[in-house]
Amino acid sequence: MIADGTEDEEKWLAAGSAAFKQNAFYMQRAIDSNNLKDALKYSAQMLSELRTSKLSPHKYYDLYMRAFDELRKLEIFFMEETRRGCSVIELYELVQHAGNILPRLYLLCTAGSVYIKTKEAPAKEILKDLVEMCRGIQHPLRGLFLRSYLAQIGRDKLPDVGSEYEGDADTVTDAVEFVLLNFTEMNKLWVRMQHQGPARDKERREKERGELRDLVGKNLHVLSQLEGVDLDMYRDTVLPRVLEQIVNCRDEIAQYYLIDCIIQVFPDEYHLQTLDVLLGACPQLQPSVDIMTVLSRLMERLSNYAALNAEVLPYFLQVEAFSKLNNAIGKVIEAQEDMPILSAVTLYSSLLKFTLHVHPDRLDYADQVLGSCVKQLSGKGKINDTRATKEIVSLLSAPLEKYNDVVTALKLTNYPLVVEYLDNETKRIMATVIIRSIMKNNTLITTAEKVEALLELIKGLINDLDEPEGLEAVDDDDFEEEQNSVARLVHMLYNDDTEEMFKIISILKKHFLTGGPKRLKFTIPPLVVSTLKLIRRLPVEGDNPFGKEASVTATKIFQFLNQIIEALPNVPSPDLAFRLYLQCAEAANKCVEEPIAYEFFTQAYILYEEEISDSKAQVTALQLIIGTLQRMHVFGVENRDTLTHKATGYSAKLLKKPDQCRAVYACSHLFWLEDHETIQDGERVLLCLKRALKIANSAQQMASNGQEGSAGSVTLFIEILNKYLYFYEKGIPQITVESVESLIQLIKNEESMPSDPYAESLFASTLQFMEFQKQKGGAIGDRYEEIKV
Amino acid sequence: MNYLLGAFKPACNVSITFSDGKNRKQVPMKKENGQTALVPLFHSQDTISGKVCIDPYQGKKVEHNGVKVELLGQIEMYFDRGNFYDFTSLVRELDVPGEIYERKTYPFEFPTVEMPYETYNGVNVRLRYVLKVTVTRGYSGSILEYQELVVRNYAPLPDINNSIKMEVGIEDCLHIEFEYNKSKYHLKDVILGKIYFLLVRIKMKNMDLEIRRRESTGAGANTHVETETLAKFELMDGTPVRGESIPVRLFLAPYDLTPTHRNINNKYSVKYYLNLVLVDEEDRRYFKQQEITLYRLKEDTSS
């Protein structure tokens, strides 16, 4: 069916072309013999081929172009005729004798062109006559091409400013009038195409119209190229008239194309000065017109214009470009009730980009845009359209990109409101975008207020949103990554002022604690670290010479810390809580806050006892306890005793002998602090070491019973030897030369056992060390001198 | 034999010349045999003067019972061929009975002749003016010579020349309003006008303006009416929409038109009509006919 159609069309075109050529040939012959009458006759016959209704626009264009070429020849002939004395007025009448209208009008236009050139009548009169007479062709396709021919021949004959056809009677107003009239008529014809023919051909018709649109748009192009169309002319005549036509034609395709055409062909400067007019037309367009693209392009153009010509910026302000655009968008959205949310958001997105480009200093504008956007989104619930969501993300990212500074974005009060409309997934994405931006630009967020705002923005990461059940959970890896980014973010929230910093931290706490168990293990540590940092910066108590009561005291902060960490054991990460307690205890130690430190330790112990059950974990934990406790100097004798006692107690209770042994000898350090004379209890050090030896012994026995690898036990002895040496070196009286010597002897005996390369090398290096200390001389050297190996 | 032949041959050559023949304008006229000949042009109230020249053939004499010249205005109906109705008949006696031996010239003059009707060559009727010279003879038959004239009469500019304006339509289907700038046009005039489309519910293919001539001859039961379309002029191509107005500009000059004739000597009438024809896509025709009056305007320069 369709194949037949095109085949037929080819046939018709071929037939038409053949007849056309033949008549063109006769016409040429008549021209060659200066026979005006025959030239007219054959040219009319030739042009009759254009009367066909059987060709598609594409094919018709073929024919039209041939006619165009032939008519050029005829025009030259007419010109010559007038030089030979034929009155051009008569010629102009003569061509109108043709009986068929289409050839007649083509000839009339051609003769009119000659008429104008001879300047025997004002160009405007002739142009006006031509454009008026062309009304006779009401067939859209034929009419469009005829008028396009008229536009073509008229183009260089317009009485434009500076043109040779300009005169007292002919002004650019006439030129504009002519082009506008022709434009209007062409557009009417073009629009009419839509409504002719059966409905089933709609698609084909729209395609054909697409092919023809440039014929119509050409007129606007001509207008834009007229010298005489200055801003006043454009504002007072051209634009209103063109818009009137566009609005009144009530055709989707035409409105979309032509508005865009206006935006593209006329200078930006004009657009800027006539924004309200142009924008005023937008809400009047058909609801189906893709106004979003149109306006986006306009704003894009204006943004580029502003970007390229900084000196025009004052004009933007002067004409209040922003508020006009904003209003217009509001109206458009209002007018087009079923406008998809995507379009609306895209519009706002473009507007936002525009204002960011043009008025980077006017944050309130950006905020207004977001505000309008919120208004638009409200009542629509969460957005489901993925494209719209993407567009919102891009909308929200724009300010971040522009300012490279989230702080600025935080000033936009409507920003979080927009975020609110995103689905959870997207909220999270948006939040990561924000955080990434902060990280990239190393933006410090310094006030509690901003922190509050920021947290509100990235709520998606901090809280479990009321996600409907059954939705696929976030991928674990993703989740981890997100939470890590939140953790990183904590360090960007910083203020030198401790009070403010405390506020920030309090806010963080408030939010983080609501974040649910899964998040806490990511969010709490950075928070604690950050808090500890704050503590370190606090002036030491009593150092406040002004007697001013500091509102942020270490005590307060420690309480605060306690609260935070307390949250952790509830979630399955006691390890973490445990470590954090110890950290805090150490910090309290530095601040000389004994009760607090003690409290932290107690907490840590409780955790150790209740939550840490894995033996390996216990070992590690115990090491941490011992390490931390060793450094604590704030405790009084009693507290310290309690704690150390406990620690040694734990050590002895470890499951594996080697572990026990190691823990116990480590405990020895708890009783000997070099710089604190109060904590120097050689007796107990020795006790610990002896106990360690005992355990090592029993470990060895168990080993020889084949219960355990024997290699380990020697290592234990050597390790204990090292401890002995350490304390010996420190000069603890209870550690005697004999005890060291006997230990060395013991190890040497054990050495005869199946060898263990690790133990051997360890022992060797120990001996080497002793030798080295001897060589060093001095008091220590002397002490080593005493040891006989 | 020669003598005998000579007896049947006209014995003389009769010719008619006009005194202003060299200056007088001549116009082409279609003769009965289809050829066109140039014929002198006269107007009413012209003085027709000239000479009749009778030139006997060598050695002949023309015996006659008188020579006369007549100016005849005749109407000839084709269905009644051969019958002429003379509405004008003027006679000048040029010679008393006698004999003509050699070339003899008679001047004649019809001063300020009333020639109320124009020469007309229609389908069924012809109106002509002719000068007829008769050399009356007895039994051998009279010698006759004719000279055709063309008479055209100028009309003054009409005092009243209203435009034609009318709204017509088919209910719920097509409503148009048309306007022609005048109701009376001279023959080289141009018809200007506009067609407004007030309602269009049919798919139109094109619109033409036709000039039709309606010639009616005879009277009463014997009336013959003949209508010819002299011009078919396409005004519009395609289907307009409501509110469109289509311009009309039709030059009358290229068409072979005459003035409107009304009831010429109770024998015939020639009327002109503008016929506006709309053709739809199924080739149905919708038309409206309006009479216009054509008249001949005295032109300053030509014809």
TrEMBL record, chain A:
It is a peripheral membrane protein. The keyword Transport applies. InterPro entries: ARM-type_fold, Vps35, Vps35_C. It is found in: Membrane. It comes from the Eukaryota. Keywords: Membrane, Protein transport, Transport. Its main location: membrane. It holds the Pfam family Vps35. Plays a role in vesicular protein sorting. PANTHER family: VACUOLAR PROTEIN SORTING-ASSOCIATED PROTEIN 35 (PTHR11099:SF0), VACUOLAR SORTING PROTEIN 35 (PTHR11099). Belongs to the VPS35 family. This is Vacuolar protein sorting-associated protein 35. It comes from Camelina sativa.
Automatic annotation (TrEMBL), chain B:
Gene3D superfamilies: 2.60.40.640. SUPFAM superfamilies: E set domains. Belongs to the VPS26 family. This is Vacuolar protein sorting-associated protein 26B. It comes from Camelina sativa (False flax). The gene is LOC104730597.
